[in-house]
Amino acid sequence: MPTVPTLPGITSKMIDTPRIKTHVLFSGAEDGTPVLFLHGNASSATYWEEIMLKLPAGFCGIAPDLRGYGDTEDKLIDATRGAGDWVDDILSLMDTLKVEKAHLVGHSMGGTLVFNLVAAAPARVLSGTVVNPGSPYGFGGSKDLDGTPCYEDCAGSGGGVVNPDFPKLMAAGDRSTDNPQASPRVVMNSFYWKPPFVPAREEDLLSSLLTEKVGPDKYPGDLTPSANWPNVAPGKFGPINAISPKYVGDSVKKFIAAQPKPFMLWIRGDSDMIVSDNSFFDLGTLGKLGFVPGWPGETVYPPQPMVGQTRAILQKYGPYEEVVIADAGHTPYVEKPEEFMAAFAKVLK
C-alpha cells in the first residue's frame, strides 16, 4: 500500500529497476502513449493524480516518486552529478517498462529534470512540458540571463540555504500551523498555490510533502562553509545541492544543442513566489529586502532572474510556447486544472 491513498483510477506499483526500486503511479490504457509526470521538491507523484485522470483516451499516465521522495527506495542523491542520478533513474525506469519514447511533464524541480532529460536523451522525448520550472541554470546563486554565478563557489545556493526548521518539522511529521515560517502546512498553503486557494486534497498533498527523505545527506543536504555571502556554498549530497548552479548548470548547453528538438511547452502561474524573478526563496531577493543581513548589493548578488533565464534559454533552443495562467501560484495544475489541461492537450495532439 502506498503511504498516501490514491484516487480511484490510479494504480500504485513498485517497479524494480537496475538502479533503484521505484514507486510509480499509473493511469489510463496500459498500451497507451506514455506520458511521464515528474514532481517537484517537497512533494511526490501524488500531486499529479488529478491531471493523470484527465488524460485523453489512448494515453498512459506514469508518475514515479523520484529518488529521495515518496515510497521509492531510500538511496542517496550524488549532487555532484547535478540531475544525473534522477536522469539515469528515469531512463532506467523507461527501459524496465519498455517505454521507448514518452511525453515528459515536470513541475518545479521536475521541470529542471525535463530540461536535463532532453539534454541527455532527446530522441526519447515526444514533447517536454515544464510547469513553473526551476531555472535550467539552477536554483539560487546566479545572476543575469546567462546564469553567471554570483561567486565562483556558487555561495547562496544548495542545502545550506534551507530554513533548518522546515526539514526538522517534516521529519517530525508536523501537520500543525504553529510555526508561521516553517510549518510544512503553512509553507504549502502560502507558496505552493496563491492564497486563499486551498485544494480539496489538502491532507493528502501535505502527506505527500512529508514523504521526502530528510537527513544531513538527504534533504536539505550538506553544505560547504564559504567566505562569500551568505557564508554557505553547496555540499555534495541531496536534492537542493543537486539543483545548485555549481552542478546542474552544465547541462544548459547540451539542452540548447539537443537533436532532435522535441517541442517544449512552458506553463506557469503569474503569481508564483517560489520560481520568479524576485523569488522569496532566493537569497538575492531576501538580501535586497533586508531579511538576510550583509547583502553585498545588486551588482554582486541581485535577485536571480529565474523566469528571464528560462525564457532566454528556450529562445536559443527553438520550438517552444509560453503559457501564463492568471491568478495562479507555483502549482497551476492543482489550482486551475481545466486551464492547465487546455494548454497541455494541444501538445498531446
Describe the overall structure.
The chain has helices at 49-53, 84-96, 109-120, 165-171, 184-192, 202-209, 239-242, 252-256, 283-288, 306-317, 332-335, 337-348; strands at residues 11-16, 21-28, 33-38, 59-64, 102-107, 125-131, 142-143, 148-149, 214-215, 219-220, 223-225, 232-234, 263-269, 320-325. By secondary structure, it is of the alpha/beta class. The protein starts with 10 loop residues before the first strand and ends with a helix.
Kindly summarize this structure in a few lines.
With 349 residues, the chain is an alpha/beta fold.
Keywords:
two-stranded antiparallel ribbon, Rossmann fold, about 350 residues, about 20% strand, 12 helices, eight-stranded mixed beta sheet
Q: What is the number of helical segments per DSSP (H or I, 4+ residues)?
A: 12
Summarize the amount of helix as a percent range.
25-40%
| CATH top level assignment | Alpha Beta
CATH fold descriptor: Rossmann fold
Q: Rough shape? A: globular
Query: Which regions have little confidence, pLDDT < 50, spanning 5+ residues?
Result: none
| Biggest β-sheet description | 8 strands, mixed
Summed over residues and divided by their number, the pLDDT gives a mean of 97
Order of helices and strands: EEEHEHEHEEEHHHEEEEHHEHHEHH
The strand order across the widest sheet is 1-2-4-3-5-6-13-14
Q: Can you tell me the CATH superfamily?
A: Alpha/Beta hydrolase fold, catalytic domain
Class of secondary structure makeup: alpha/beta
Beta strands, count: 14
Task: State the distance separating the first and last CA atoms.
Answer: 34 Å
Strand content: 15-25%
Number of domain units: 1
User: Radius of gyration, rounded?
Assistant: 19 Å
Q: Judging by the overall fold, what is the CATH architecture?
A: 3-Layer(aba) Sandwich
